[in-house]
Write a structure and sequence with these properties.
The chain starts with 14 loop residues before the first strand and ends in a 6-residue tail after the last strand. The strands form 2 sheets. The protein has a 4-stranded antiparallel sheet. Strands 3, 4, 5 and 6 form a 4-stranded mixed sheet that branches. It is α+β, with helices and mostly antiparallel strands.
Amino acid sequence: YIAPNKRPLSSMAPTMVFDSSNLNLEDGNDHGFGRLLFVLGASGGPKIISSVLQVILNRIYLGMSNFDSIIHPRIHNQLLYHDSAATGYEKSELFKDVLIETSNRTRKALKNRNHLLFSLDYMGTCQAISVDYETDLLTAVSDPRKYG
């Protein structure tokens, strides 16, 4: 049961991402963090941290939109999965004829690095809200893996 001072049963990774490239501490609004770019979180037990990290990388480093960052196929390295080290790659059917699947190129690259691969139909569920400073609009995306 939920109670103060208890540990959560699974991973948690509620995350706020800031742009610290233009800190302006003199106006008193930045508090040393910079501008808020987006917030996100996930559900999915051991896949939470992998999901959140991959969405951040997709959004910040690959420049994907919120939706594309979340819908993009994911991988998850499970240190021990059925008693062996293995990497899960996503292959999930969202709706009839709508498939999210890790590319052959990515799977081949992982195999070349000696990863033992297995497919998973669920890689966690992310939600994110981003701030567009040019239009002052918020964009929210709920993961379609959980009918968002």
